[in-house]
Specification:
By secondary structure, the chain is mainly beta. The protein has helices spanning 75-83, 243-250, and strands at 8-13, 25-27, 31-32, 35-42, 55-69, 87-89, 100-104, 120-125, 131-147, 154-161, 163-167, 185-189, 192-194, 197-205, 208-211, 222-225, 232-238, 254-266, 269-284, 296-303, 314-319. It holds the Pfam family Phage_tube_2.
């Protein structure tokens, strides 16, 4: 009997959309829901009986989520898939040659004319005799969360893939670092450090759509945008006053910063994720009495594109990976 504990997920960067490659990196993951659905095309002709008409094989659609803890090296591939390729530098190449800094700014251009964002091949071994290889996988949504309820930073990546092939499983080589933790975070709202938040969630929705063309196959032929990219943000806060609520009422757009500082790499450099948001706009700020305890607010909003910074959200990742 197959068991999830013996499963693994590997990923590999594709050069050409939909052309599969061997997995080179492996994700520590908690769950996955990638599945292939085959459209049933049913004739509408009347055939003289009350039973439905014959079915024919239609489109093969592949989508699902992968979720797990956030580790500082391999998470860069998920960021690349969701935001585009980063700009990479070395903060101190002479004294600390193993430390790299990657700046992910959401791209405005397409990866190619058939794929908006950098595609990956995803191998999911589910403890069967063969592994499931999904080629042409694009990250439509990528969300991160952490807080007093989930003390290890989590990711959820919603993917759309092109085709499925059963292959011999590869041997996983998992990242040997520590994940980011809740107590490593500092939050800044409108230039002021905040200690009132208990949970934080942020990410990107790329509004991708799988499309088919008359190419002689039943597979998706391209994954392109069908709407505007959004950068949702939400948090829970135990408020001491109405300062942030009044900014919601005035629809004031404020700068915000989320930073998690992990384990030491070398010298004075630590593994780190820094999220810069030049304009955070609150869309809902409900304050209600739910009982006799502390009054909390579940705040939602989004990072808005800033014409001066030329981005809505920028993520800087410091780790030991030389390139993505």
């Amino acid at each position: 009997m197959p068991f999830g504990v013996r499963s693994h997920i590997g990923i590999g960067k594709e050069v050409t959309y939909g052309t599969p490659v061997v997995a080179t990196e492996y994700l520590r993951f908690a769950s996955e829901s990638l599945n292939e659905e085959i459209e049933q095309v049913i004739s509408e002709n009347i055939i003289g009986i009350v039973d439905e008409s014959p079915s024919y094989e239609g489109m093969h659609n592949i989508a699902g989520d992968i979720s797990g803890d956030v580790y500082p090296n391999v998470v860069g591939h998920l960021m690349r898939a969701a935001f585009g390729a980063p700009t990479t530098t070395q903060p101190d190449a002479t004294n600390n040659p193993t430390v790299y800094q990657h700046v992910f700014t959401p791209v405005q251009d397409n990866f190619s004319n058939t794929c908006s964002l950098p595609p990956y091949t995803v191998e999911v071994h589910r403890d069967f005799e063969q592994a499931f290889q999904y080629a042409g996988a694009s990250v439509n949504e990528l969300n991160f969360s952490f807080g007093t309820d989930s003390k290890i930073m989590q990711f959820t990546a919603a993917m759309i893939a092109r085709k499925l092939t059963l292959i011999s499983k590869t041997t996983p080589n998992l990242e040997n670092t520590n994940p980011f933790l809740w107590n490593q975070a500092t939050i800044t709202l409108d230039g002021m450090s905040s200690s009132d938040l208990s949970t934080v969630q942020f990410g990107v929705n790329n509004s991708l759509e799988a499309r088919a063309t008359l190419d002689g196959t039943r597979e998706v032929s391209r994954v392109l945008r069908n709407g505007a990219r959004t950068l949702p943000i939400s948090f829970s806060t135990e408020m001491n006053d109405l300062t942030e609520f009044n900014k919601f009422r005035a629809q004031t757009e404020i700068p915000a910063k989320i930073e998690l500082t992990g384990s030491l790499i070398a010298g004075t450099h630590n593994y780190k994720i820094t999220v810069d948001i030049p304009k955070l706009r609150y869309s809902a700020f409900p304050i209600n009495v739910g009982g006799t305890g502390a009054i909390t607010a579940q705040v939602t909003g989004s990072a808005k594109y800033d014409q001066t910074s030329l981005y809505g959200m920028k993520i800087t990742l410091v780790n030991t990976t030389a390139s993505y």
